[in-house]
């Protein structure tokens, strides 16, 4: 019997699962527990919350291996956190060592995009492929490569950072400090920014976004909702974001020519028009004869947790 503990340290959600059987797409975790962090969170409180979730799902059992998805920058060679994308206090924390000392079991640690990529390769839309790219589009834009059944990290652990592919010279400022990156044009934050800019520059346009802007700060989810209701400004913003993402994905396909690119993350819930614009942007930008498949995530929001479990499973073989 295989006993695997899988952990997902997300920005607003912590998840733990205990897997006690074969890890195949038809099975489910024996137990899953979630804790949505409220108010101000830091690394110490997140670790305490995660240990509480672990006790809940383990119920006294002892894991043979632990797989971890972490939402931030990691040193793959040491398992130390460089920094979290969302939670303060994680800088230079020895996450792998801490968990090994806690559970007395081998620990595999990956960032959330790499873990989700491995989950999709093992169980989801990239299953049975040789080369796969996973792209996640939410607050930011990230990605992970699977080559030959293994996560490909690159020399500096930066492989898969598709969000920082520059596609527009002198474009919007990106979180990385450069301008015109995919993330600055296609992420959830970018969609919200474009909606805010539209309200400031054209307040007389016939759009429901302006009323929402006056009531509350606009979000990508709000923009998607208005686009689904037929708002022309919101629809145009989503189209521009989808086309920018498509350009970044097409560049990655042209460079490496993977079997499949799987796209996930919260922005993928923006509706069928957004998906149509994305697919059209990718396929219209590819070289003739390219057969790379573009697919939506099969595992959705659980992809990092499934990936963490799959990484732990692989460490036992």
Descriptive notes:
The chain has ten helices and twelve strands. It has 317 residues and is α/β, with parallel strands linked by helices. The protein has two domains: 134 residues, 2-Layer Sandwich (Nucleotidyltransferase, domain 5); 171 residues, 2-Layer Sandwich (Nucleotidyltransferase, domain 5), CATH 3.30.420.40. Strands 3-2-1-4-7 form a five-stranded mixed β-sheet, with helices on both faces. α3 crosses α10.
DSSP helical segment count: 10
Structural class, by secondary structure, is alpha/beta
Order of helices and strands: EEEHEEEHEHEEEHHHHHEHEH
Please tell me how large the radius of gyration is: 20 Å
Brief account:
This protein is of the alpha/beta class and 317 residues long. The chain contains ten helices and twelve strands.
List the helices and strands and how they pair.
Layout: E1 4-9, E2 13-19, E3 31-36, H1 43-58, E4 65-70, E5 72-75, E6 80-84, H2 95-103, E7 107-111, H3 112-123, E8 131-137, E9 141-147, E10 150-152, H4 182-186, H5 188-201, H6 209-215, H7 220-228, H8 232-256, E11 260-264, H9 272-284, E12 293-296, H10 303-316
Helix pairs in contact: 3-10, 5-7, 5-8, 7-8, 8-9
What descriptors fit this protein?
five-stranded mixed β-sheet; Nucleotidyltransferase, domain 5; alpha/beta; 2 domains; globular; 317 residues; 10 helices; 12 strands
